[in-house]
Write a structure and sequence with these properties.
The complex is a heterodimer of chains A (about 270) and B (about 250).
Chain A lengths: L4 H25 L3 H21 L3 H22 L4 H22 L7 H6 L7 H30 L1 H6 L4 H23 L4 H15 L3 H26 L3 H27 L1
Helix pairs in contact in A: 1-6, 1-8, 1-9, 1-10, 2-3, 2-4, 2-8, 2-9, 3-4, 3-8, 6-8, 9-10, 9-11, 10-11
Chain B lengths: L6 E12 L2 E12 L3 E5 L6 H9 L6 E6 L4 E4 L13 H5 L7 H10 L15 H14 L4 E5 L7 H18 L2 E5 L3 H7 L2 E5 L3 E5 L1 H6 L1 H7 L16 E3 L5 E3 L1
Parallel strand pairs in B: 3-7, 3-8, 5-6, 6-7
Antiparallel strand pairs in B: 1-2, 1-4, 8-9, 10-11
Helix pairs in contact in B: 3-4
Classes of the chains: A mainly alpha (about 270), B alpha/beta (about 250).
Chain lengths: ~270, ~250
């Protein structure tokens, strides 16, 4: 069964969606969408390094993204530049360096479109293992830091005062962000990973009344997007990443209709 | 003063500066089990800063803080909940610790907001939110409770009831309370120890001692020493940005 590239892509996508659901909620709650973008841009550098050193892509992306995240934290301490300027600086410079390195790697045949927008043909059995084992680890760690992370998302000082160590939770979460980008890059592509994190979570916010429900709907939304997106990708021969994101946008629009209806019902 | 075992938190000449400006400097105080210590002082006098030093939120401080309990609950002056976070009162109650449903209901009933249990926090009024914050504090059964303006936005009758409740919590749980309050009436009637701040400790002692103190009179006006809740702030000295104090 795993010989079929489509089945592999489906299993990979489902694995990714289960993890991006809860992480995406935190990205929305903590206003980290641009931070996610920055890590994703830096992933290109990770991929090129993986090719040039014949290294595992996911692992290399994870290392580079984590380094970028740590650099950001250091820069925030040392300069007074606003956060978005620092993020832009890191995002574009790491993207630029990645592209320059690609220029030097002319001896390797590169599918740059696949890298940017995802390629379901490229998902191997090894990738499945990385996604599912990596994803399970991410979820496990997220569960362990859930309480301090969530409490400090609501109010940092409250969490700090009541002994929950929010700084540690934040640092761990940063690493988890790097990890999810590393495992989902082949499926969604580096330009669209943040969309996979944000859009299902945003859709979920429209229809949820509690944090747990929002996480649940976010996972369901992600799963539906992956299934819908991959089938249409197969049907219309479009890139997998954009198809998945377009499907999630469709769900988001539907969730807006739901809000309008409930407001009408109230009046 | 009671024996050392009762001390929950102790500040030794503690101070905190931000961007080379002292927010508060040289504060020494201690909170003991079953006692209410109140911080008073004009706006910007460092009351909230002192509370945050005691809580360990500010870490790069001058002087030192000794804390002898980990069962701490903090009721901050203000919490704003982002719309993106769908958070009900019930979710907020168990934010930092899981608490049984009975305890939650009991606490919410005590502060009169049990009917709001399934409401979204973003939909509450300021006064309702304060009551939820207090209920959360009660249900956690703390040893040290830090309250920063706990009844702001609460209606007048509710205010009195809530201060009585705070006094009751202190007695029943035998917990120490560090209270920041503007209401001198309450300060004088329910407090064991008053610290009057103005970037530094102006004076401290029992409510009666403080009310008779000349610096207190200078800070809050003559009338305040007759325990009136309306007061004026007259400065007899200037604070430089280095935290020094110059007499007028």
């Amino acid at each position: 069964m795993l010989d079929d590239f489509f089945i592999r892509a489906l299993i990979a996508g489902i694995g990714v969606a289960i993890v991006t659901g809860p992480l995406g909620c935190f990205v929305v709650w903590r206003r980290l969408s641009y931070f996610g973008d920055t890590l994703a841009h830096s992933a290109l550098l990770g991929v090129t390094l993986a090719y040039s050193m014949e290294f595992n892509i996911a692992f290399s992306v994870f290392i580079i993204s984590s380094l970028i995240a740590l650099t950001l934290i250091q820069l925030q301490k040392r300069t007074n530049l606003p956060g978005d300027a620092l993020l832009g600086l890191l995002a574009h410079s790491s993207l630029a360096i990645g592209l320059v390195v690609i220029g030097f790697l002319s001896f390797i045949r590169f599918d740059i479109m696949g890298l940017l927008f995802g390629d379901i043909l490229a998902v191997t059995v090894d990738d499945l293992l990385i996604i599912w084992i990596g994803g399970a680890l991410i979820l496990l760690v997220l569960k362990l830091i859930w309480k301090p992370l969530f409490a400090s998302t609501v109010n940092y000082e409250l969490a700090e005062a009541e002994g929950l160590n929010p700084d540690r939770a934040k640092a761990v979460f940063t690493i988890l962000m790097a990890a999810i980008i590393a495992i989902s890059i082949k499926m969604v592509g580096l330009l669209l990973i943040t969309g996979m994190l944000i859009i299902p979570a945003a859709m979920a916010r429209n229809i949820s009344s509690s944090p747990q429900k929002m996480v649940m709907y976010s996972i369901i939304g992600g799963l539906l997007s992956v299934i819908l997106g991959l089938f249409s990708s197969l049907e219309f021969n479009t890139a997998s990443g954009p198809s998945i994101i377009a499907a999630s946008l469709l769900l988001f629009i539907l969730s807006l209709l739901n809000i309008k209806q409930s407001i009408k019902l109230k009046n | 003063m009671s024996s050392n075992q009762n001390i929950l938190v102790k500040l030794n000449r503690a101070g905190f500066s931000l961007n080379n400006k002292w927010l508060v400097k040289g504060v020494s105080l201690q909170v003991e089990k079953g006692k209410i210590v109140t911080l008073i002082g004009p706006n910007g006098s460092g009351k909230s800063t002192t509370a945050k030093i005691a809580l360990g939120i500010y870490k790069k401080i001058d002087g030192s803080v000794e804390k002898y309990t980990s069962k701490v609950v903090y009721v901050p002056q203000k919490i704003s909940i982002d719309w993106t976070l769908p958070l009900r009162v019930n979710d907020f109650m168990v934010l930092t610790e899981s608490i049984s449903n009975e305890l939650i209901d009991e606490a919410l009933s005590l502060t009169g907001v049990i009917h709001l249990k399934d409401k979204n926090l973003g939909d509450l009024s300021g006064g309702e939110f304060q009551r939820v914050l207090l209920a959360r504090a009660i249900s956690k059964k703390p040893e040290l409770l830090v309250l920063d303006e706990p009844v702001q936005g609460v209606d007048f009758t509710g205010e009195i009831a809530l201060y009585e409740l705070i006094k009751k919590i202190s007695d029943e749980l035998n917990c120490g309370i560090l209270l920041i309050s503007h209401d001198l009436h309450t300060v004088m009637s329910a407090t064991d120890h008053v610290v009057c701040l103005n970037g530094h400790v102006c004076c401290s002692g029992s409510p009666m001692d403080v009310a008779k103190n000349n610096e207190y009179k200078a800070l809050f006006g003559e009338q305040a020493s007759q325990i009136l809740s309306r007061y004026e702030h007259r400065h007899d000295h200037i604070h430089t940005s280095e935290g020094e104090i110059k007499k007028n």
